[in-house]
């Protein structure tokens, strides 16, 4: 018995640029987009938090439980074999998606777990676990970990904890007034004492694409590990982690059309095999004695316990869907939506968008994804979000798990609108028109 994991796109998917007509056809693949909210058609502009799921992804997870459900890597019966084959085929699909080998892909619950896995693995190495192969990972007093001011808390707090446990010092690359990384500071901070440099590919608040190649080059020039948070890039941009030459990278399935509960840690094979494990127990060992155990090589050494089987299969189906549409086409479409969103909001009196402006045809501005975080003068972000929700427009409000970058720009919270491959220009325009009404509605215009 096999499970059909093909994407089943409603759109025929021509290879020209995406446009509203094709996006409207794609929307038929997403059941939730047909519903209404508060008497209005749902206008879902919160994909930066979590994406909606196409029917093929929903169906494949259900179908797995209907015909092939079993524990993977554990049984010799037919169902166990089918489940294991589907599970490992999913790993191979996701590996191909990011230019990696299957052995370099570790299943996690989410990107946060992946970052903690790396940080705690380094901590265990610093305690002497892993023997000689793990020497390269050891940190102590005098060593430094470098992060940036724009990081999501998931790529900040684990490194704070690693610094606390090892005595290392945490250093921070700042932002300029436009919201760009201070690469002059990066060149000064990343030096002989640096052991880890952790940074986001795309800011979940500012929407700007960061200079990965430069940061990796600075890291490797001093022998430091480069750790990439790809949560806001894997769903939206073509991503080749091997070409980027990062040492570790993470992303989450739920932001890229897949279910919650599945994430990915990528690591270079030689690093994963040397890194001591973080979670321990069954399925990640070769031999267990009463006083000590030996661990499997990667990726199994990091996958203790019962696996996320249906979620992994569904993530592979989501990857198939994204590839059928085309990541290059999605990137161009979202860049257009992001430019439309940014320029439309910036043109409104009393509205400020955080981060650098989008790239123009002349090359000025920043490469951005379809995301904009903004402040409405005199109106709290939560009130802005409620006003939009009353009109069926779903956005994110708050600090988006990124308090330091909000603090850098003197605000406690923003409203964030984030688009995806199923977002139309009409939806972006409707959101801008609704934001234009907010200050008048609250009497602060």
From TrEMBL:
The EC designation for this entry is 2.8.1.7
Region (Disordered) residue ranges read 1-20
Cofactor(s) required for function per UniProt: pyridoxal 5'-phosphate
What SUPFAM superfamilies does the database record attribute to this sequence? PLP-dependent transferases
- Which keywords annotate this record? Pyridoxal phosphate, Transferase
Q: Which reaction does it catalyse?
A: (sulfur carrier)-H + L-cysteine = (sulfur carrier)-SH + L-alanine
Q: Name the source's superkingdom.
A: Bacteria
The residues covered by the Aminotransferase class V domain are 44-430
UniProt biased composition (Polar residues): 1-13
Family assignment?
A: Belongs to the class-V pyridoxal-phosphate-dependent aminotransferase family. Csd subfamily.
Q: Which NCBIfam families match?
A: sufS (TIGR01979)
What role does this protein play? Catalyzes the removal of elemental sulfur and selenium atoms from L-cysteine, L-cystine, L-selenocysteine, and L-selenocystine to produce L-alanine.
What name is this protein filed under?
Cysteine desulfurase
* Taxonomic source organism: Herbiconiux moechotypicola
């Amino acid at each position: 018995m096999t499970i059909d994991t093909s994407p089943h796109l409603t759109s025929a998917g021509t290879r020209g640029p995406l446009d509203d007509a094709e996006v409207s056809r794609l929307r038929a693949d997403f059941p939730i987009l047909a519903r209404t909210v508060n008497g209005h058609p749902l206008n879902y502009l919160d994909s930066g938090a979590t994406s909606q799921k196409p029917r093929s992804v929903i169906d494949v997870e259900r179908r797995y439980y209907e015909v092939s459900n079993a524990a993977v890597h554990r049984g010799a019966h037919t169902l166990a074999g089918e489940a294991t084959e589907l599970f490992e085929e999913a790993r191979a699909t996701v590996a191909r998606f990011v230019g990696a080998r299957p052995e370099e892909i570790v299943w996690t619950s989410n990107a946060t777990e992946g970052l903690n896995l790396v940080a705690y693995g380094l901590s265990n190495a610093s305690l002497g676990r892993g023997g000689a192969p793990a020497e390269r990972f050891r940190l102590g007093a005098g060593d430094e970990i470098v992060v940036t001011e724009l990081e999501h808390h998931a790529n900040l707090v684990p490194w704070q904890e690693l610094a606390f446990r090892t005595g290392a010092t945490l250093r921070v690359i700042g932002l300029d007034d436009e919201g760009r990384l201070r690469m002059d500071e990066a060149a000064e901070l990343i030096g002989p004492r640096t052991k880890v440099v952790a940074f986001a590919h795309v800011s979940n608040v500012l929407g700007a694409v960061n200079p990965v190649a430069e940061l990796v080059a600075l890291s490797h020039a001093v022998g430091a590990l480069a750790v990439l948070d790809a949560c806001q890039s894997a769903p939206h941009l073509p991503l080749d982690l091997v070409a980027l030459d990062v040492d570790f990278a993470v992303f989450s399935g739920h932001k890229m059309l897949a279910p919650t509960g599945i994430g990915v840690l990528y690591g270079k094979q030689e690093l994963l095999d040397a890194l001591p494990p973080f979670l321990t127990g069954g399925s990640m060992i070769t031999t267990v004695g009463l006083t000590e155990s030996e661990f499997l090589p990667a990726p199994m050494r990091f996958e203790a316990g019962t696996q996320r089987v249906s979620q992994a299969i569904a993530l592979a189906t989501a990857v198939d869907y994204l590839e059928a549409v085309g990541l290059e086409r999605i990137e161009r479409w979202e860049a257009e939506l992001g430019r439309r969103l940014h320029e439309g909001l910036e043109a409104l009196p009393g509205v400020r968008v955080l981060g650098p402006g989008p790239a123009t045809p002349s090359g000025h501005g920043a490469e951005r994804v379809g995301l904009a975080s903004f402040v409405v003068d005199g109106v709290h972000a939560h009130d802005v979000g409620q006003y939009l929700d009353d009109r069926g427009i779903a956005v994110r409000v708050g600090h988006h798990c990124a308090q330091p970058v909000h603090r850098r720009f003197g605000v406690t919270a923003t409203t964030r609108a984030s688009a995806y491959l199923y977002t139309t220009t009409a939806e972006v325009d409707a959101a801008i028109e609704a934001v234009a009404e907010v200050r008048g509605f609250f009497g602060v215009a």
